Amino acid sequence: MLVNTTDGERRELLSEWLEEQGVAARPAALARAREVREALRELLVANNERRPGPPAATELLEHAAEKSRLTVRFHLRAELAPLADGVDGALGRVLAAALGAMWDGSWSRLKACRNCHWAFYDESRNRSAAWCSMQLCGNRLKTRAYRRRKQLA
Q: pLDDT digit string (tens) for 39-81?
């Protein structure tokens, strides 16, 4: 997943992800891909907080969709497909998948962790998951809150 091509600890996997997509990227294209990744992350954080995405992020994604020249293709089923090649085409495929998730209702389950901002799929029955993992981020936040309460007592 494009959004998880950085682990929050300065490890950058975006170039490797693009290579897996069959794309070699120059620095300017990598910068555009990072902007799209972070705009998608902002929308996923907004999903977790149950609020609309920031206008700047949605504008950036709309511009990226234009650059990828998304169009409808009728194969076995109708789908959005980018006409652009390279990085713009790879980003267009991600944006088409995001739109598909919005259309099929699964988008609201895609979130970014409140702690580390790692993207995850909320499989909870009531769609209330807030962390990528209870064992990692959930435990860390609950432990910090517990220690703060103990210090105040």
A: 999 999 999 998 999 999 999 999 999 999 999 999 888 899 9
Contacts for 94 with CB less than 8 Å, ≥ 6 apart:
2, 36, 40
C-alpha 41/C-alpha 113 separation (Å) is 10
Which pTM value belongs to this model?
0.84
DSSP symbols for 79-138: EEEE---HHHHHHHHHHHHHHHHHHHT-GGGEEE-TTT--EEE--STTS---SS-IIIII
Determine the topology of domain 2-152 in CATH: Jann2411-like fold (1.10.3300)
Locate the domains of the chain by residue range: 2-152
